[in-house]
């Protein structure tokens, strides 16, 4: 298949729920209103912000890094120098609300521990800013609903950092799965996990809201939802945590879950803090589509079995990274007044299922989402 | 790894529960007492018996085909001619019990629909014959227990047709998994399924006792048990069957299940009559072992990821087929008065879990095996 065919099919299939995903410079120029770059403030200068997000602004066509928020003055000094951010655009958490008075900041990107997502997203919306918030959106359905309400009230956009939706192989997998490339999807296996190192906020429930599911298992869950385009009807989960392991005093290690979707698709998902997984497989009557690694920062690979042939699927190189694609998508949505394809409602939908997964594992029974 | 190393490790690890698996002509000659071949009667001349089992006797060193049992005279005539079986050694179901008087028959291999396994296994034991019975062993735990009791009372062997235990890649996977090749096993994914054609006994509960789980899902279950060497503590299952599909009026289509083992290993298993799967993956902290196809009649392939390298594992060609290995194993056990590595107790262990899987799916809750 040629790139043209791929793009054409994606256009026809309309990736995303009710919103076209603009990809490539032509679309950006169109959406970006002649190249205006919206200003981002990054809130929380941890490893993901500084190593994955901030270096990608140089790829962006509609987004630029203009402000930093951190509780550590040394980090502000260091990254302000590295990215040419003026001292006036550096904030502590204490004076965070002063971003209201800074017109250079259009969008606030929350990259804090999960338990702080709701508070800072809501404060950003109240300060009149659009919000990008890392996943998981928050630590409860109630918090997600409060965040959506705050952004609506402020008439500002709210988007969740589901970067895989801007990654070419994942977009291809969505198109192939929903387009029935191996027939109508029957089963999805989605597996995500890594070996958690001790002594970090992810392992402290007060900061993280939960264990592997909140952190890496959410990739399995979100993939099951975006590959099907459906919401699960029932959730069945089993947790397995060695409570004598000092890492898992307050959060779960492994939690595996099965989702049953209205069309009959079953998703069989792994979430683990004690083994390495990064893959999904979409099974249809005529074969399967494998992605491994599926949702890594880079290096995605896809293999398709159809009929009796098993072949790698290689997409053209040189496309915009998922990180830059994610950043620019919100900018373009702001400029064109469109709803992001992964708005707050998407984070809320995941959180509803996450709460059902925890409940199912706790109660040892299948949970129906309409009664969750 | 050389063949020598492989065999040496298998010897050291002692594949199977308390019984060494003899492989290769030297072991056979030793066990076989100078080359005596035991006589098999095949009961049920369906596709599996005639296409997979009967053609493999020519590979056997301790087994030979000497008798046939069928309700269809044309089949008896045809296969008796093809395999040189005398007319006196051909039986209908009506005169099945006369095998008692035929000293040429040492072993009776039951390849009938599942609901007939118990009856014919018990009648064969009462006729003084050793029994090989296809899997699933029967359609209930109670039947399995009755079969074991009948063979014990008759002082005859009872073995279940778990051919994968005699297949080189599966033996390798057991050795690697239990030997910690990628560290202690954390998660096993086992997926088996195929697209069931309509109008066959497998889809009639009165004959089959159940749907995909009884037929192909048992491979996922049995693999989870033989790869861990443990019995599950809890079982959580979800069934998904389109009852409007005429194939699934009386049996289940898909039933997925999670098993939690005492060491903490989780097995995440697929069983499907509506999509094609034949694989398992063993995940440890240092990588994974993939087998796909894992339990097919032939063509097994294995891939191992360890550290940062992903490599195929290719075993030496020309080994005895799993079918011949299975047939000869029971003959050798009879000759040496040893318990088969997949005796009736192995079929019973699977059936206990199968009943728990159905119960979990029916009741929508996790079932503890000690209360099952």
Strand order of the largest sheet of chain A: 14-13-12-11-7-10-9-8-15
Gyration radius of chain A, in Å: 20 Å
CATH superfamily of the largest domain in chain A: Dihydrodipicolinate Reductase, domain 2
Strand content of chain A: 15-25%
Average pLDDT of chain A: 91
Describe this structure in words.
Two copies of one chain form a homodimer. Chain A is built from eleven helices and 15 strands. The first copy, chain A, is globular, with a radius of gyration of 20 Å. In chain A, strand 5, helix 6 and strand 6 form a beta-alpha-beta unit. Chain A folds into two domains: 3-163 and 338-344, 3-Layer(aba) Sandwich (Rossmann fold); 169-315 and 347-371, Dihydrodipicolinate Reductase, domain 2 (2-Layer Sandwich). With 372 residues, the first copy, chain A, is α/β, with parallel strands linked by helices. Chain A binds chain B through residues 186-187, 189, 191, 193, 195, 234, 236-238, 240, 242, 254, 256, 258, 260, 264, 266, 268, 270, 272, 274-277, 283-285, 287-288, 364-366, and chain B through 186-187, 189, 191, 193, 195, 234, 236-238, 240, 242, 254, 256, 258, 260, 264, 266, 268, 270, 272, 274-277, 283-285, 287-288, 364-366.
Question: What characteristics describe this protein?
Answer:
alpha/beta, 15 strands, 2 domains, 34% helix, homodimer, globular, 372 residues, Dihydrodipicolinate Reductase, domain 2, Rossmann fold
């Amino acid at each position: 298949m040629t790139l043209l065919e791929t793009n054409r099919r994606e256009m026809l299939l309309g990736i995303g729920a009710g919103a076209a995903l603009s990809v490539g410079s032509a679309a950006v120029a169109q959406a970006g209103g002649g190249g205006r770059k919206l200003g981002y403030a990054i809130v929380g200068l941890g490893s993901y912000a500084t190593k994955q997000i901030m270096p990608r602004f140089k790829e962006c066509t509609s987004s630029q890094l203009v402000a930093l928020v951190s509780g550590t003055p040394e980090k502000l000094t260091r990254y302000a120098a590295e990215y040419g951010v003026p001292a006036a655009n550096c904030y502590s958490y204490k004076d965070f609300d002063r971003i209201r008075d800074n017109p250079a900041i259009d969008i606030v990107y929350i990259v804090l521990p999960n338990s702080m997502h709701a508070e800072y997203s809501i404060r950003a919306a109240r300060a009149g800013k659009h919000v990008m918030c890392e996943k998981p959106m928050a630590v409860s359905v109630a918090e997600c609903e409060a965040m959506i309400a705050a952004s609506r009230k402020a008439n500002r956009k709210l988007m969740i950092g589901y970067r895989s939706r801007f990654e070419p192989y994942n977009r291809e997998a969505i198109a192939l799965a929903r387009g029935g490339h191996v027939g109508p999807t029957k089963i999805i296996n989605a597996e995500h996990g890594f070996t958690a190192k001790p002594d970090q906020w992810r392992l402290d429930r007060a900061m993280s809201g939960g264990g592997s599911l909140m952190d890496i298992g959410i990739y399995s869950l979100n993939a099951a939802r975006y590959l099907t385009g459906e919401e699960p009807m029932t959730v069945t989960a089993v947790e397995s945590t060695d409570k004598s392991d000092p890492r898992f005093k307050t959060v779960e290690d492994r939690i595996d879950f099965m989702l049953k979707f209205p069309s009959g698709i079953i998703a069989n998902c792994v979430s683990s803090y004690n083994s390495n997984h990064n893959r999904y497989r979409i099974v249809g009557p005529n074969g399967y589509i494998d992605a491994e690694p599926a949702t890594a920062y880079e290096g995605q690979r896809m293999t398709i079995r159809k009929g009796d042939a098993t072949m790698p699927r290689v997409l053209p190189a040189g496309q915009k990274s998922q990180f830059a694609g994610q950043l620019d998508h919100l900018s373009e949505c702001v400029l064109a007044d469109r709803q992001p394809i992964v708005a707050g409602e998407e984070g809320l939908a995941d959180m509803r299922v996450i709460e059902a997964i925890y409940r199912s594992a706790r109660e040892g029974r299948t949970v129906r989402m309409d009664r969750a």
